[in-house]
């Protein structure tokens, strides 16, 4: 993420007390960046940091937080990641706003996040200051999308109602596709999502049919090309 941090007079009026934040990401350098970003906002206090979902939930049980700033793809942990983790957080901590940090720029996925109750999304390639702005917007119940993700979300909204491709997938199909393209087997996805192998396979087959791709290789390539999962370095195209 960009190291430039500045104070912005936008994002709504500062609350009467400091907004209490818990941050989660499996990369220490990202957590350091989040801390650095939030320190630039006098009205925001970072209470705790976590490396995976188990630590995140334990932190939320231990401290009284207003906002969660969390990575979307965060493997390991008892409560999973992605949409499954968002759903758990919304059910068990409904009063806490959620800000998602992500490298994934797929418009359909971003729309699903907002449908799941996320308050704001920030691209990891955006200026660090957008994290604090997203927290402020979340506390004022105003949706926030950072610049690098805004165009993707607007494109998906423009296609809504006559969609093909990712927009036709259900939230669970998107989640299965994301994990499958990230290298997990059907069995591993079942464990991660607490679903049977048969159920996961059904979601994968449905995604194949809806997207009109011929097999697993094309499905994975589609997910990589459309921002639903990161392309592993070993498979990255050489420019």
TrEMBL record:
<dbReference type="Pfam" id="PF00072">
    <property type="entry name" value="Response_reg"/>
</dbReference>
<dbReference type="GO" id="GO:0006355">
    <property type="term" value="P:regulation of DNA-templated transcription"/>
</dbReference>
<dbReference type="InterPro" id="IPR000792">
    <property type="entry name" value="Tscrpt_reg_LuxR_C"/>
</dbReference>
<dbReference type="Pfam" id="PF00196">
    <property type="entry name" value="GerE"/>
</dbReference>
<dbReference type="InterPro" id="IPR036388">
    <property type="entry name" value="WH-like_DNA-bd_sf"/>
</dbReference>
<feature type="modified residue" description="4-aspartylphosphate">
    <location>
        <position position="71"/>
    </location>
</feature>
<dbReference type="GO" id="GO:0000160">
    <property type="term" value="P:phosphorelay signal transduction system"/>
</dbReference>
<dbReference type="InterPro" id="IPR039420">
    <property type="entry name" value="WalR-like"/>
</dbReference>
<feature type="domain" description="HTH luxR-type">
    <location>
        <begin position="162"/>
        <end position="227"/>
    </location>
</feature>
<keyword id="KW-0238">DNA-binding</keyword>
<dbReference type="InterPro" id="IPR058245">
    <property type="entry name" value="NreC/VraR/RcsB-like_REC"/>
</dbReference>
<dbReference type="InterPro" id="IPR011006">
    <property type="entry name" value="CheY-like_superfamily"/>
</dbReference>
<keyword id="KW-0597">Phosphoprotein</keyword>
<dbReference type="InterPro" id="IPR016032">
    <property type="entry name" value="Sig_transdc_resp-reg_C-effctor"/>
</dbReference>
<protein>
    <submittedName>
        <fullName>DNA-binding response regulator</fullName>
    </submittedName>
</protein>
<feature type="domain" description="Response regulatory">
    <location>
        <begin position="20"/>
        <end position="139"/>
    </location>
</feature>
<dbReference type="GO" id="GO:0003677">
    <property type="term" value="F:DNA binding"/>
</dbReference>
<dbReference type="InterPro" id="IPR001789">
    <property type="entry name" value="Sig_transdc_resp-reg_receiver"/>
</dbReference>
């Amino acid at each position: 993420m960009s190291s430039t941090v500045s104070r912005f007079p936008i994002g709504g009026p500062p609350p009467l007390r400091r907004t209490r934040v818990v941050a989660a990401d499996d990369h220490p350098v990202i957590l350091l960046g989040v801390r650095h970003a939030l320190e630039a906002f006098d009205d925001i206090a970072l209470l705790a940091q976590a490396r995976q979902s188990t630590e995140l939930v334990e932190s939320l049980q231990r401290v009284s937080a207003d906002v969660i700033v969390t990575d979307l793809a965060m493997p390991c942990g008892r409560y999973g990641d992605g949409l499954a983790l968002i759903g758990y957080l919304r059910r068990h901590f409904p009063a806490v706003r959620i800000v998602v940090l992500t490298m994934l720029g797929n418009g359909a996925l971003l729309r699903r996040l907002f449908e799941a109750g996320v308050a704001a999304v920030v691209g990891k390639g955006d200026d660090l200051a957008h994290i604090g702005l997203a927290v402020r917007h979340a506390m004022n119940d105003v949706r926030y999308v950072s610049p690098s993700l805004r165009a993707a979300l607007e494109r998906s909204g423009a296609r809504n109602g006559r969609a093909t491709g990712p927009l036709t997938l259900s939230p669970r199909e998107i989640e299965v596709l994301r994990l499958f393209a990230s290298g997990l087997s059907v069995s591993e996805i079942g464990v991660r999502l607490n679903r049977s192998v048969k159920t996961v396979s059904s979601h994968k087959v449905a995604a194949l049919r809806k997207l009109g791709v011929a097999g697993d290789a094309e499905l994975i390539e589609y997910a990589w090309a459309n921002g639903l999962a990161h392309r592993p370095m070993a498979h990255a195209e050489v420019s």
